[in-house]
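With this grant's support, we have settled on a layout for protein records. An illustrative entry appears below exactly as we store it:
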Amino acid sequence: MSQAQLIVDLDDPVYSLFEVSDIRGVINKLSAVKPYNKNRVEDYLSRLITRGGFSAQEKVIINAAYREYSDKPTDFNIGVSEYSELRLYLANYNYLHYLNRVFTEFTGGLSAKYSYNVNLGLYLNMVDQDAFTPYGFSKEWDGFHIWFGEGMDDLAGENGHLNFTFSSLPQLSYDIIDANVNLKLSRTRRDWGVGQGSLSLSATARPIEAIEGRIKPAPWVDFSFLTGNPGDWSDPIPEQKMLSIHRIEIFPSSWLYLSAWESAVWAKRFELSYLNPAMIYYVGQNISGDFDNIAIGGSFALTASPYFRYYFSLFIDEFINDSWDRFFKTTNNQYAWQTGLKIPLSCLPFSLLTLQYTKIEPYCYTHYLQDHPSYSQQININYANDGENIGYYLPPNSDEFLIKFSFYPAPRVFANIKYRLIRHGDGELADGQIEGDIDDPYVNGVNYDKIMGNKVVKHLFVIGMEVRLR
């Protein structure tokens, strides 16, 4: 398969198919680091075809997906696709978001181990963030907008009329030994986590141009790493930063999943401590100097097949243990955590019920502007890319209770219904209140009580339904 190393987009419903099958115990030891390459997807589907325990409609869906991914393309292909999106806020018809994209791809492979995808997307859109659900907006394009007679608009295209813009999501991917050792240079959205939305690298994050790799030294171990180039076209000088992240996943048994990870956001420079995926970033920072933003975390999942999966994830940004009795109140203990339950249901094909709680503590993901000897200007090394969170989509000082029901009614059709209760605190530091924005870092020396300082809290109830056709 000449394009076997290219990725399968995160919005492909095949990932939900795999997750439900994993919880049921039909297949197991699936990595939580996504997206997968096409050869992995084909391999998993070929296993499912030979297994029992599926309804007649589920078998139809599996066979259709397998035919799609086992189809062997030629060594060189040209593809053109079109995507349209319309969003309207029913309470105010003036809030209208309209997007049209024509995407041209040149894909192929130079051998059985090397694949490439060179592409360009051209957009005609009218942007309105108010047409989205709270915190649900993410840019699908790159750079500026332009319209005849008005020139360049770098303010995200929110000007009340249509605009042209562009995007590019290239891939170069190579299996060094076999499918168990892969290296790629690509720009795409990624999701590294066991829950619905990762705390460390989420599908809602903007694409990052990165060198990344996956090594599977044994059937029960996966090691993934990435070093990439976040930024912000609208304010490029303080955004000269890099992201490095690595994650080890261990599968001791079919019912237990363990992982640990570490990340670093650092000012652009030639820093071997972060370019080396085998290096512990915290040690590297102590060698080169405290100029960077280091975070650590981990996850575990317990599966009782075929009934449910329980999971827990932790993100530690900053940790100050001044006293255990004040651990949950101290402002500069900056962390996030997530816990949830996923329950496969038999009422519809590959249906899954998710119950999840996520807490983003105040000032988590933030960082003060950093001085560095290589730069005359301070660098913004917060946990963001192009103004959007790299981790979970909520801002600091928030929590969320999520109920999601998803199902796969027919080949190439996927649907879900979501209910979210979101609480967010956003006060004024001068008034003794805790802030709630990723661009408002913790101020050293100020230690307001997390509970007493949270006086400005808004409650949001969000119900959404999505039907996706491929």
Remarks:
- The two ends are 22 Å apart (CA to CA).
- The domain at 176-469 is CATH 2.40.160 (Porin).
